Each structure stands twice: as structure tokens, then as C-alpha cells.
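ingest -> validate -> predict -> emit
validate: passed (alphabet ok, no gaps, 421 aa)
predict: started
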Amino acid sequence: MNLISKLNLNPDGKIIFKNFSYLSLLRAFNILSQYILVSFLVRTLGSEKYGILVWALSIIQYLIIIVNFGFNTYAAKYIPENIGDQKNLNRIFSAILFFKLFLFLISSILFIVLLYNFPAFRENYKLLLILLGLGLGEAIFPIWLFQGKEKLEIPTKIVFAFKVILVLATLSFISNYIHLYRYAYFLTISQIMIGFLGLIFAFTNLDVRFESFSPSFLKKLIKEAFIFFIGGIFGKSFNFASILLIGLYYSMEDVASFDISIKILAAIQLPFETLSMVIFPTIARTKNLALNQKFIFFSFAISLLLWGLTYWQSDFLISLLGGKELLGYGSLLQTLSVLIPIVVLTYLLGTNTLVAFGYQNQFNYSFIFPSIIYVLILLYLWKTDSLTFALIIYSRIMVELLMVVYRLFIAIKYRLIFISR
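emit:
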């Protein structure tokens, strides 16, 4: 008997356990490979060059947000609702893939135009042009399809294979600071290959086919995904905005330390984010409010313990990744560690609670309203010449706290939590 049989789970439990296992392996190795690469690159390229790389990647991430257009969240919910209609699934797949490629083409052209008109960007134009290919990889990798059909084994194996190749290539061929562009090529090529293989396996293993679709059908998908796109622009850009500002007004060493701190927190939050992604299709399909509530309470309790542990061991964790050169930034990780329980609640009160139970607009408003406050505060600080490194960090924490407070308020208001069912 295999492990799933021994656990004696019901059908939904088996799906959750299987996908959680695959996605945990995928994301755990993704974080592990990032740790290996960060630790190696900071020491090989130097903290300044590594900071430039992180700063450039933060700019490219905005293009990736545009290319995804909210489909990674919207389609993961929409596909389970149409799982019995293969023809409609083919239309959804074809329309989303077409539109994402269209967005990549248009946004790339606009990006190149902007690149040559802003001095801060033009200084690193070659690096940004190389990393532009990451947008193509994201456009063609249908992770939303695998997640929506609850078949995460395939993307797990694809990503695992190419992350191994990326790590080995980096350790073998990156030896000093002049190899910054070489690493950028490795990173971009690996992401494009992940995208192409994901697309091939979608055809061969998920039985999807290209299907003609009408302009009205595409318009419907765009209209319904648009609110997720707006939410994504605000919600997924908090760290990128902080990195961009730190890079513009402070040192690239500060950028490197902030990025390393965020990566440490990402590793700690990994099991909760993975759990959120895995149970989302099941919660969206079954509307099991009691199951979702148990996950929220359990996860939040564990996250509080991890917050204390991270705060206590901040110097050790920073030096482990960044070396002694960045040891003085342990206090930065201590400050940011409060995000662990906050972000865990953000995950589980977001897609798993609001989106899964039909409150998509409120979900996206939870990004938009705090983000507007965040932008206004940063503009005020910039206008009054008060934009310090510490205030950028505190503003980053504040916007996440506002988001989780809003989501908690909506969940209580519509009786999605703190109820007995």
C-alpha cells in the first residue's frame, strides 16, 4: 500500500495530499536552489553586482505581472468549474495563451522604448534586455492549467530538472563579477525552456488542444480576469517597489540585504503558501468552509512560532546567505520578520477564502485600497525629502498589515470565518 492509502483519506483529502506533496517539493527545491544561488552569487559577483541583478529583476517582474494579467489566479478557479467540458477548456486554454503572448509582444515593445528614455534604466539596458526573455517563459508556461486540473506532478518535474541545470551551470561557469550577464542568460534560457516543456506536456498529458474562440469569448475572459490583474499589479509589486526605491535612493548593498531578507521569509512562508495553492481548487469546488477555517487557525498558530524563531536567529540567517559582508543587516531581518504571520493570514484569507467563496471583487480591493495608501505615503515622503531606508521598510510592512485587516473584516462580515458549520 502506498502512503496515501495508509492515511485513509477521503477523495478530496487524497487530492490535497498528493498535490501538496508535489507542490511542496517544487517550491522547496525552488527556495533551496535560490538559497544556493544567492549565497554563491553574493560571494562571487559581490553584493553590489548582486544588488544590480536583483534591482533589474524587480523591474522585469512588472512586465511579468502584465503578461500574466491575473490569469494565474482567475484561471485556476475557472478551470475546475468547467472540468467536465473539454471543448470549453480547450477554448479557455487557447484564448489565455494567445492573449498572454499578445501582451508579452506589446509590453516588450513598450519596455524597450522606455528603456532608452530613462537614464536609470538605460545604464543597465543590456542586463534588462537579456532578462526580458523571462516574460516569454512566463507567458507560455500554463501553470494555471496544471493547478486548475489538480495535476501538479508534471510542472514539479519540469521545474526541478531545469533548476538543477541552472544551479550546476552557475556553479560551473560563474566565477567572478564580470559574469553577471552570463548568469542572466542562464536564468532566462532556463525559464523559457520550462515554459516550452510545460506547454508540450499540457498537450500530451492534459489532452488540451488549440480551439478557435470568438472575440466575444476572449473579451469575456479578459473582463473577468481584469480585476485580478489590477489586484496583481498592486499586490505582487510591494517587494519590487521597495527594491526599486532602495536601488534608486540607496546602495545596491542595501538592495541585496533586503532581497536576502525577503528570500529568508519566503522560505519560512513556503509551506503555508504551498498549502494555500494546493487546497484552493478543492475549496473552490467543494465550498468546504469548515476545512478552510481549520487550515487558517492551524497555519497562523505555527507562523507565530516561526516569527519568534526568525527574530531570534536573524544574524545567523543573514550571514548564512550573504556572508559576513552583510552581517550588519540582521536588524533588517528582525524588523521584516513580523511579515511571517501577517503574510500567512494574507494567503489563507485571500484566494482560499474570498475568491473560493465568490468574493473576487473584495479580494482585489484588499490589494487596491492599501496600495493606494502605500503609494500616497511614499509620494508624501518623497515630496518632503523624508524617504529614508527605514521608512521604506516600515511602509512595506504597513501595506501588508492593512491588506490582512481588510480581508479579515470581509471574512467576518460575510461569515466565512469564526463560525461553526
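The chain has a mean pLDDT of 82.
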